[in-house]
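Subject: for your reference before the review

Hello V.,

The reviewers asked for a structural picture of the protein, and I figured it would be easier to keep everything in one thread rather than splitting it across files. Below is the amino acid sequence we used in the manuscript, unchanged from the supplementary table.
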Amino acid sequence: MPDDLRVLCVDDDRDAGRRTAEYLQDAGFDCLVATTGADALTRLGETRIDCVVSEYEMSGIDGLDLLAAVRGRRDRLPFIMFTSTGSESVASEAISAGVTDYLRKSGTEARKLLRERIRNAVDQCRAERGLAETRGRLEGLHHHAVAIAGAHDRETVVDQALVAADRILDFDVSGIYVLEDGRFVPLTERSYRPEDDLPTVDDGVLGHTYRQRESVLVRDVREDTTAQPDQPEFRSAVSVPVGRYGVFQAISEEANAFTETDRELAELLVTHVTQAFDRLESEADLRRTNEQLQAILDNTAANIYIKDLDGRYELVNDSFRELLGLAPGEAVGKTDFDLQDDAHAEEVHANDRLAVERGEAIQIEETGKFQGDERTYYSVKVPLYGGDGDPVGVCGISSDITELKQRERELQRQKERLDEFAHLVSHDLRSPLSVADGYLDLLGADVDHEYIGKIANAHERMERIIEGVLTLAREGREIGDRQPVSIRALATEAWETVETGAATLAVVDDTTLEADRDRLQQVFENLYRNALEHGAPDDAHELTVTVGTLAADGFFVADDGVGVPESVQEELFEAGESSDPDGTGFGLAIVERVVTAHGWTVELVDSHDGGARFEIRT
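And here is what came back from the structure prediction:
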């Protein structure tokens, strides 16, 4: 809106009208003079008039008639009756007709007052007109905001926003830009695209707006350093960040083309765009999550379900529905009492209530009978809550562990048989062996023969085999309580319990593991004995056994001996396998059992020193 103020002075006394106009011009007003009402109406139709100052008594059309005619054309145009012949009745009639102000001509003071009344009237009119225009633009933006909020993709959001910028905000050239590879790329064909290279994140108004996350109003690019470097053919711009997505910008070839009101309206428009982008992104994330959840529901072998507090199924996945032998949707509304016998249903329902009462997830084993087949399930049940924080139901995932339970029972039976076997070995074999040792001692006292020593060695080997079998049976059971164990300390302690001869131990570093200390010491002892019995060379070379940690979690035991023959490497950890004819073959089998019982792995690899290296990975 222009800053100058144009007044139309209407008086059939030409000299009086000219004096009024000259006085107002001295105050900086742009004045026109009309000597008749008809001339005034013509001027009103030809040019912009901000205020009419009219005499009351005039030939032809008087001041009141002119007021009525002006109100018929421009009902909000300021109209001041400035008269020398009026009266109170005339003033009352003028006010009733909608005059803006009424003044009597009474010298210089009246003309001074006229100046103020004109300024006040025009300022108020402009403010009201601006407010009306802003209100109209806001209403227009609201209609477009509805379309933006309902858009199903970014392209529609952008196009609706740019249509609003053009039609409602009168932004002839505008666009929405996102950052790709450091440059601002226009979204959709409606966004203005510069002829030169696309601006970068470090350039001009776009870059500043994006980096600072704040709106920018550039009235004249030639006077604003923020706009450097920008397109020289444009003189002014308004730029608003679109959240974390990009920037909205409107530009003009004219300086001062945008006002603070334009900036505020642009921010309002961009708020709707940002909210729409956020919504679309959330909807896309939700779709992906739903697709992933649906894929889990459709493809998992576990039974997944949701029940209300009364135990009625609200959702079941296909796996559970097929187990029940029901058609899609048929399980909804039913309870466990409708689907299986009362004993099993009561067990399941009690577990549902337990999850709700505890207010936390529970893990429990359940049994159920479906289509005549009794199954065992490992169930995780989680209470569900409504918006008010009160429980509304239970979500459960139940995995069929029937075969696992059968294997557990079979393993238990095997353990029991192993215990029986160990008892047999301990009692029924050692007793006759003790008798044989006794007779051998008696025979040795009377007979000096080379076979006596060989028989004694055979008895000793039988004793080692019996001890190995017993140890293997014991080591096959589960480990005891775990506690922090220093590898350096335990490796050193185990070395002291083994007949090591001239061999030496080197513990190069240390780590702490959670382990059954006694069982882990057995691992070290057996690995040491294996190195000493099978790895030592025939010459007088001293064997060195090294213990250290692995780069990944775990430790190793290595020696610089002769290594392990390839012929026994594949079955090295099998019970009874040994490269020494006099060996029992139980030592490494026990190592493997203990390591596995901890949930670890053991592997034979080549030692850096040429011998054997056993790596235990935890």
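For the response letter, the relevant points are probably these. The mean pLDDT is 85. The first strand starts at residue 6 and ends at 10.

Happy to draft the paragraph if you're swamped.

O.
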